[in-house]
Protein 1
Amino acid sequence: MEVDLEQTLVLIKPDGVQRGLIGEVIHRLENRGLRLVGANFQQIAKDFAELHYAVHKGKPFYDGLIDYITSGPVMAMVWEGPNAILAVRQTMGATKPTEAAPGSLRHDFALEVGRNLTHASDSSETARAEIDLWFRADDLVKWDRDIDHWVFEA
Ligand code: DAT
Ligand code: MG
């Protein structure tokens, strides 16, 4: 099947893990029609967190952000589908939960920007770089789902 599929990195941050929301996040991404191609449950070290959030270095919230993302295990995943980058960010909702659309995860499960449950890549460039940072190429699974042609048009 030839479809222009995007891949995007999704993290369920330590608050999502601690609150037992791994299943909820995965459920919503599966319901959306996206296809899981990689997953790794891990606790990251500070130097790795600094690589992931390098773009935010120097911002007032940076130190708190590094403390937050390293405060417990995270569920790192790669999801795939047409327009996956945009679709996943829409499912997550705006960065500030009080600005997130009703029905989005951050609206439905969060209140504070510093406890906003998930990370999702924001462009094709950052998606590629983040997937390469978090996953080895051969840990991503190429597979065809039986329902793909009912979800992906092409
Ligand atoms: P997103 O996670 O929606 O891509 P971002 O890349 O702008 O948002 O910021 C990364 C994370 O940093 C975000 O999930 C939470 C934190 N953050 C962003 N802006 C913040 C702010 N103004 N105050 C506190 N934390 C903030
Ligand atoms: Mg971001």
Protein 2
Amino acid sequence: MKITIADRFTAEATAWLKSHSQFDVAVTTDPERLKVTDAVIVRSQYPLTKEVLDTMPKLKYAVTATVGFDHIDLSECAARGIKVAHSPIAHSAAACEHTWALLLACARKIVASDKTARTGEWNRHPLLGTEFSGKVHGIVGLGRIGTRVAKVARAFGMTIVAHDPYRDNAYFEEREATRVGLDELFHLADSISLHVPLTKETKGRINKVEFAFLKPHSIVVNTSRGGVIKEDDLVLHLKAGGHGMFGLDVFTQEPHRKGYELQNFPQVTMTPHVGANTREAFDAVSMEAARNLVALIAQAPVSGPLPPPEDWYQAVSGLAISHGV
Ligand code: NAD
């Protein structure tokens, strides 16, 4: 069985795969190797589009060492009988912590503070921040990461409102979150974080309608996928002097094209899709993906089974995401 690792992966997880005598493991994107590979491990930088799948005619198994799977054409994989898994567990802590890093950076104007402290200007007047204590945090997508973010919000003394049509009331109660509609969430919350997968349903779902509901001094953080926010609407909202500070780790196009408008607004704090970019998460997700591949091959349960493509979870494929987890 030929296994090809086509993206960033740890030496430890590679060695673990190599320790299985039935596997021939190579770390490469050499087209000659891909032509004969039975299994592939990728991340978002190596999207499995129809065209890429055409270069791997023997492929039977594909695992992405990421939570997001919008870079994989699931319908095409299903049509070709390719079994696919993602790796949803290992990134949760890192993504939650980065969400809070951006929430805090926006609330306490960390980027501008760093600049004025560094230059010795010491211009504190524009740096008046906001507090989380006693406020309402809104979570869109109360899954693994959303649940962790809620836990931290409670530690700050916040109450939680959340929007997730795919979870039942008992699930919300366990997380001490009040179920609300999306518009209501934007109307009620002082800070908001997005934790939904990019699907046909969530693509562009956060747009001018939701921005119009934002309170003064509210904060919106997106560490999910760039396409969830309609970026053109956000630009217009900010140009019109609309409410809110925005912490963005993910973008419709990564890296940005030249002249990307959102980079001009001081209300926006940006990071280059580093939500899961910690040493711990990289080690853990490589092992999670390696174990999932071995389990897929053995027809054993994986940590990240993907629902059938016809399901609501069908990801939007063919997006120009080149960096990500
Ligand atoms: P998850 O599957 O555990 O949670 C997603 C939640 O979203 C689920 O509860 C689901 O019911 C809900 N949901 C789906 N469609 C919805 C809709 N239309 N409206 C409201 N809720 C909806 O996933 P997770 O592990 O929490 O990860 C969430 C996303 O975060 C991933 O899909 C991935 O794209 C992204 N992510 C980004 C980074 C990063 O580096 N920035 C790291 C990890 C994960």
Protein 3
Amino acid sequence: MKRAIFPGSFDPITLGHVDIINRAMNLFDEIIIAIGVNDDKKYLFSLEQRLEFIKDTFADQTKIKVQTYKGLTINYCKEIDANYILRGLRNPADFEFEKAIAQTNRNLSGIETVFLLTSANTAYISSSIVRDVYRHHGDISSLVPESVTKFTIK
Ligand code: ADP
């Protein structure tokens, strides 16, 4: 069974994340979207909200599960028996940042990181831009899945 974990903060999940997950579904038997919980980090959306957005977005997909974890991603991979870490790449800055982490993770655990290049139409989307637009009451509906839009316009 090819099980991958897609780790991130997902504050909130965006159409960039959704694109990577949908495309990775052809590569893996199961994808665990894993929300990393860092007590030192401040999030805009609560953990419950972030979980709900993702569950709602992939409600019809049996191959996709959502979980939360604390600590090292490779330790969590071992715990749930995932052999691959999935990451998206948008630009050279992402690549430089991800390269060292992926090499360290492989060194420490043998776990491979699989990178998918962002689609051209979602390359510019990031959770931080979505948060900025949202905070200033802008329209985020072209940047996030419907589950997030639904919640934010309530
Ligand atoms: P982190 O806090 O780990 O950066 P994010 O939730 O921001 O978590 O991102 C999780 C993963 O999704 C990362 O691999 C990131 O590069 C990828 N990602 C984010 N936005 C996009 C996008 N627009 N296109 C492709 N990948 C993306």
